[in-house]
Amino acid sequence: CDEHELHPNVFYRWQAKFFEGGAAAFEQESSRELGRLKRKVAALEARLARKDAVLAEITEDYVRCKKNDGIL
């Protein structure tokens, strides 16, 4: 406080405001990060579902071809 010519009461008032509202600032950031990660997970799950559907269709066609050729 002396170095910056700041009255100690002002410093402690700022410190109290930070401790009261500081956690909220981090929660907002965490909330945004959580939202971003949820959207990313949803997009990846959609891609995985599409891949599974394509793979199932290809496997079904493969088995059908093998049965028609008399191999299975």
Strand content: under 5%
Helix content: over 70%
How many DSSP H or I helices?
A: 1
Largest sheet: none
Which structural class should the secondary elements be placed in? mainly alpha
Please tag this protein with its features.
72 residues, mainly alpha
Describe the structure.
This protein is mainly alpha-helical and about 70 residues long. The chain has one helix spanning about 10-70. It is rod-shaped. The mean pLDDT is about 85.
Question: Helices, strands, pairings?
Answer:
Layout: H1 8-68
Brief write-up:
The protein is mainly alpha-helical and 72 residues long. It is built from one helix and no strands.
